[in-house]
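Q: A reviewer asked whether we had any structural model of the full assembly, not just the individual parts. We don't, so I'm hoping you can provide one. Inputs are below.
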Amino acid sequence: MDLTVGLLLGTFLLSVLALFFFIWSMAQGLFGSGKSAATEIFARNEFGIVEDPAATDREKSELQDAMDPGEQYYEYFDALMLAATRERMAARRRLRDDADHRTLADQSSAGVVGVCLTLAVVWLVLASLAGLISSIKLHEPDWWVQVDWLTFGRIRPMHVNMVAYGWCSLAGIGVALWLIPRLLKKRLIGATYALAGGALWSTGVFAGTVAIGMGYSDGLEWLEFPWQIDILLVIGGALVGFPLWLTLLRRKVKHLYVSVWYIGAGLLWFPILFVIANWPGVHFGVQQATMNWWFGHNVLGLWFTPLGLAAAYYFIPKVLGKPIHSYNLSLLGFWSLAFFYSQVGGHHLIGGPVPSWFITIAIVQSMMMVIPVFAVAVNQHMTVLGNFRALAYSPTLRFIVLGAMMYTAASIQGSLEALRSVNNVTHFTHYTVAHAHLGLYGFFTMVMFGSIYFIMPRVMNWEWPFPLLISLHFWLVLVGFAIYFIWLSIGGWLQGLAMLDEKTPFMQSVALTLPYLQARSIGGALMTLGHLVFAAHFFAMGWKFGPTRLGAALLNPMLLMRVARNRAEA
Amino acid sequence: MSADKSMWEMDELRLVIGAMLILSGATGLLVVLPYQLLENVRPPAGLKPYTVEQLAGRQSYIANGCVYCHSQQPRDIKQAPDFSRGWGRASVAGDYAYDTPHLLGTMRTGPDLLNIGARQPSKDWQLGHLYQPRAYAPGSIMPPYPHLFEIREGQAQAGDTVVKLPPAFAKPGEVVVAKPEALALVAYLVALDRTYPALPQPPKTPNSAEAGKQAR
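A: Here is a predicted structure for the entire assembly that you could use as a starting point for your response.
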């Protein structure tokens, strides 16, 4: 048996063993607290009650009608009513306790969450503009060439870093800062430190982006910021991470909800990845390339993905008012994601001057990624199943469910791209760029949009002033992204086929991509326009435009009455 | 209460231990193991270290983000026609013995450059191409780099390196002079030449190994 085949089989067997271990541990209850943890996100009277602060009153009642809570919730509702009559005082106290915990939790995080999300939105706009300029420059190479920092080779990494460390990280941190106190029913400890951390982080992103523009880059993809500036991000990240972990250690709830697992782990993983990858003077030559893609892939798999999934796992059940389909499945997804995703980075170097076992591990684990992806997909799909009408009435849900679907799509596409036969075509082409956007935009950014629509009304105590702008934002980015992804994928695939054909001159592989690159600019322009609409709406809310004020964060008498009415009709 | 408390702590403990075990496993496989395997890779006999000027040029390559469109890793003939395009043999780890940071790249919007110096050794061509790629490669989408050059009206001064542009692209009454960054970048590009044979296989039999020792 030759060495590569042996390695392939060995890695595969180990992976399957690991998978059985995860399943076994799940059965033993080693990794979590079973079903009851799935209900941690609801207060006692919230079962079957929808919640979406971004929806209008009419949408809210339509959403409640669309949900039809089902027999078990009616029973719960009845029991609640009974309890309320029998031991009125006790029940009232419990309700008030839950309300108090959540109000306190939300109040404690509001300031820092508001600041982080505002900074994130600013970075989103700047990053989009940089991305659009890069895109246009690929098909109009003689446009705007006199300014050195606008040259493609600088504005492109500026775009990527502003997206990754500016928009995505700060949005993810903001959402995590808001979710953790809520999920632990505990005030955020050290909010001031977290605030300083967010500001320092953003300062680091600004300094790093300027450095790239001036030509001071460390030269590695995803790691361009000079390491001296990275120190700002490390300190800023620590100032955000410690308060979250301190809050975690003093929680008031019995069970850790799955979102807490994702956020807690992400907060541990990212600093380790970032510090090892940026440590100066350690890495060299080809070893640095393996490290580069260990980092480049893990920053997606162990930082952005956990933050995005944590949000999806909270908001989908919360908006619908029903617990996640299978809590155990969500934990299996968590552990298998950590195990398989952390080893796939090598597939970025297939065909490169690296040892063959390195590639083999990456390919096998890329295929194994199907397991955590299906765990998430089945779970989230089964939760939404039968309630698709709810998407029409909940802006939050529309973004997040779409994002969750694109997570499945991006992951399966990623697994396939790791296969040698597919990788041969797609490697070195625009196809990879399209795929990267399916993950970080289609999945992560969409989930963040939905989360921000839910969170900001709670942070500001103010409703979104112009609900139509939410729809406009949604359709602009959806259509724009569809154009971007579909055309760039086709162009990239054709480019790859042309490069593999010995008889086709290289220049033809360049020429044939031009119409697709132009289509990408059109899609990118629509996405950018959508972001401008979103940012304008965000700041309009910040300055308290519009007529309405928001009710309490917990009780919604209108919806309670509606459930009672539905009950009567059923 | 205390029993509850210890159980609470268990969840965090599992999270920390599990997360750390998994990450250290992956780091061991993808970072530490390659480090140990590649630490002792020697540069092939035909590979020369970069000169100071070439290193400055390499820095300019990084500063202007050439890596976002050009790879430096020709693939094997069995996998892709890189060799027949003139991009060179499949590269080996030793070829990168002096390359920190690595510039392997992930895109081929333009061609692979690991052997551009062997393919296009003319400094004049390289300078002109950086000033206006489409003067040499019609249909190219590479950006021009005017900030690496100076445009002088009239005559060049002594010591200036004048860019020799094709007549259709030269403007009468002005000369294009390469700045030191451009000259360094071209020195680096021209030095990119890994056409020497890859490291020979190490001797397999004890006899030939001893013969090798005696020869030294």
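A: Points you may want to mention in the reply: The helical segments of chain B are 2-38, 52-63, 116-119, 123-131, 180-191, 206-215. Chain B touches chain A through 76 residues (CB under 8 Å).
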